[in-house]
Amino acid sequence: MSTAHPAPPKTSLAPPDQTLVAQTIEAQLSPGLILRGLRPLAGDASNRRYYRLDVAGGPPHSLILMQLAEPEGFKQSEEAVSGALHQITELPFLNILSHLSKAGVSVPALHYYDQTAGLLYLEDFGDVTLAEAVSKAEGPTIEARYKQAINVLVQIQVKATTPADPGCLAFHRSFDVPLLMWEFDHFLEYGIVARRGKPMCSDDWTAIRHEFEVIAELLAGQPRVFTHRDYHSRNLMVDGLRLGVIDFQDALMGPATYDLASLLRDAYIQLDETLVDDLIGYYLGQLAERRCVWTNREAFRRLFDLTSIQRNLKAAGRFVYIDRVKGNPKFLADIPRVLSYVKRNLQKYPELDRLRKHLTPYVPELQ
Predict the structure, then answer these.
(1) DSSP one-letter code for 350
(2) pTM score, two decimals?
(3) Is the C or the N end of the chain the one with fewer CB within 10 Å?
(4) CA separation for the pair 301, 277 (Å, rounded)
(5) CA 219 – CA 200 distance, rounded (Å)
(6) Cα–Cα distance between 7 and 276 in angstroms, integer?
(7) Residue 282's CB: how many other CB atoms inside 10 A?
(8) Would you call 206 helix, strand, or coil by DSSP?
(9) Residue 261 predicted with pLDDT over 80
(10) How far apart are CA 290 and CA 296, in angstroms?
(11) Torsion over CA of 67, 71, 72 and 73, rounded to 10 degrees?
């Protein structure tokens, strides 16, 4: 069993050699394609960089260029991982890309991988994330967009889970108790201690960790499905009628509620509670049509809420980590939103009274 800390931040990357990119497009991609321009794109919290390549002679008329922090460095996950030791012989991004593509999931096509330069030439899904598509939309449009996202999620959970593929990296790592606890501890370390600038009382720390372990054991004991791990509104791209899925390289096996909680308890978009209820019902209905039936919907909702607590606390701690360690403060503004979900769920279940009692004094948003 290994639970590894994410890799330390790398130094800033020099932009890719535009002459090399132009030569690669002409030599390795569809005949007649010519590079017209290269524009940097806003990245995520990772060590990768992204560029849009404008090309003539297509289709395609544009490509996404993913630049790895170092040519082979992407073989290590930037998230903590847990599971049996497994030799990684290819980039997790490409490994998971292949698996999801076979499962019929709309992931970006790989046009070419320049392994020496650490450059991946990928299909361009455009600039419109699900978050942007719903940010100013009316209720019916928001509901339709999220039902589409749930349809894609059900496709992933059903078609990418079985049959199990030993060649897919996701099947060799899982949300087990050590990993779930690592994420809880990540919140204590950054979401409380680093954020406050002083340590916790040992009695509170012990009590909180005990309650975290109860939740971790419950989640780890659930049947496991293929889990994207970061299935939210900024990793889903609205491209015409289809919904493209990106940022899946940290996929593993986990409880069915994990990606659903990532989607519906999103750090970037807060959905109306009535809509959340309806979408959970829609998700269960879609699963039932695939003969995956949750007979006790109340038990599923409790599991969803407990998963949300784990996921949202991890996100809050992660956002502080990204600020303090990676020097990127842009996610700090999203912390109150994810902690508001935690506050709601802590108040919902009497069994969480002890956790709420010991945790609340350290987190202003929970008070």
Answers:
(1) G
(2) 0.92
(3) C
(4) 9
(5) 26
(6) 35
(7) 17
(8) helix
(9) yes
(10) 17
(11) -60
Question: For position 94, what pLDDT does the model report?
Answer: 95
- Per-residue pLDDT at 87 exceeds 90: no
Q: Which two tokens stand for residue 248?
A: 């899946």
C-beta contacts of 327-332 below 8 A and 24+ residues apart? 327/9, 328/45, 331/45, 331/267
Over the Cα atoms of the chain, what is R_g? 21
Burial degree of 57 (CB within 10 A; 0-12, 13-18, 19+)? middle
Specify the DSSP class assigned to residue 295. Answer: S
Torsion angle, alpha carbons of 330, 334, 338, 339, to 10? 100
216-249 confidence digits (pLDDT tens): 999 999 999 999 999 999 999 999 899 999 999 9
Query: What domains are defined for the chain?
Result: 2-123 (3.30.200), 130-366 (3.90.1200.10)
The phi, psi pair for 252, rounded to 5°, reads -155, -170
Contact between 252 and 83 under an 8 Å Cβ cutoff? The reply is yes
Single-letter amino acid, residue 363: V
Where on the phi/psi map is residue 160: left (φ > 0), alpha (ψ -120 to 50), or beta? alpha
Nearest-angstrom CA–CA distance, 284 and 293: 7
Over residues 46-61, the mean pLDDT reads: 91
Strand positions, DSSP E, the chain? 2-3, 34-41, 49-56, 62-67, 82-83, 110-114, 119-123, 224-227, 236-239, 242-245, 252-255
C-alpha 18: how far from its chain's center? 31
